[in-house]
Amino acid sequence: MAYTYDYPRPAVTVDCVVFGLDPTDCLQVLLIQRWLDPFAGQWALPGGFVRHQEGLVQAAHRELREETGIADLFLEQLQAYGQPQRDPRGHTVTVAFYALVNLWNYQVRAATDAKQARWWPMDRLPALAFDHDVIVQDAIATLRTTIRHRPIGFELLPAKFTLTQLQRLYETVLARPFDKRNFRKKLLKLDILVALDEKETNVAHRAAQLYRFDQAKYLERQQTEFNFDL
Amino acid sequence: MAYTYDYPRPAVTVDCVVFGLDPTDCLQVLLIQRWLDPFAGQWALPGGFVRHQEGLVQAAHRELREETGIADLFLEQLQAYGQPQRDPRGHTVTVAFYALVNLWNYQVRAATDAKQARWWPMDRLPALAFDHDVIVQDAIATLRTTIRHRPIGFELLPAKFTLTQLQRLYETVLARPFDKRNFRKKLLKLDILVALDEKETNVAHRAAQLYRFDQAKYLERQQTEFNFDL
């Protein structure tokens, strides 16, 4: 007979840290306000219980859709959290995921057990339920490490963009300013940008050169790690 | 009343990928041979069910100790695996951990539900139970990425070592040779080594210079990422 385990099992949940880029402000995080206890009325990461025979990513997508209306984003696993006291309902292991999206592309609406769903600026987050503040801090640290080894921007910027827009994107995620000349030199060295024969239109200032990503080289750069030492 | 989840819960397990360095051979992985079904007689990663009110790292250490006799190593979380068909006993989520140790420091002995426990060379692994082959491949990929951004060797080499020993260590983990001059130049640039006023003794060849790690700088380098572009 197969060995099975007779003790009570921990519950298994998933939680999602969705970072939204708003070029006019700092990085945002998608939070929901809880209807029910524990932590009724408090803000938390979208997430919930993994169903019977449901995969982890599948559960994360379902919960995001149910609680915030958001679908079709690319979730990366962050890690599992299993400290036995982290949930007052009892021993619960949660698997956390994260994603980075252009928040203008996603219409957020609350549903199921979420009273409200909205973007919160990273630097003005409310107190979060459970250990979700720790999970958000781990996710931002991982995101910031990741973008030093893989290019970002492809899904976040318009098809044609200026180097200033790209710099703002990096500045928003890393929450610090960069020297313009240095940033440009290093980015162009990555060899993932194509200068277009076009300039910005409808701008008050001097129209800047437009660029697009070289998709093939961009994808290649996603595979071969580099150190974008800004 | 607090919302709870009434469906059957997945089981939760932990699995450990312990890499052992043997300077005379390739990288090794610690495996156990299963006594019981499923996969009775097959080789697998040490691991097992998380107990009631037990933390994940705590469970991983307990299982390692019980099944292989190994204690006191530093486990890093790899990720969770939750594909519903991955365990024939039913829906099981496993959280995988990994570690890199000097295998000469660890006496391995089988216990509890392990029939045997032993080190296997990475390039000659047997077929593994469950999805453990995938977990091992993910762990080696993560280990190889990690050592490009953090120095290794402190716990793996003797207190005084030669640059050749350090090079062999990197070659063993990354499974490829390096150019001696290039490797030395890049390593010395990391500024974590202290040249000693001593040479190797009892060697047939010309005695090489001995080095030690500068612990303060080594720890600093663990914090501030770098790109060891070998």
From TrEMBL, chains A, B:
Residues 7-142 form the Nudix hydrolase domain. It holds the Pfam family NUDIX. The keyword Hydrolase applies. GO terms for molecular function: hydrolase activity. Keywords: Hydrolase. This is NUDIX hydrolase. The lineage of its organism: Bacteria, Bacillati, Cyanobacteriota, Cyanophyceae, Leptolyngbyales.
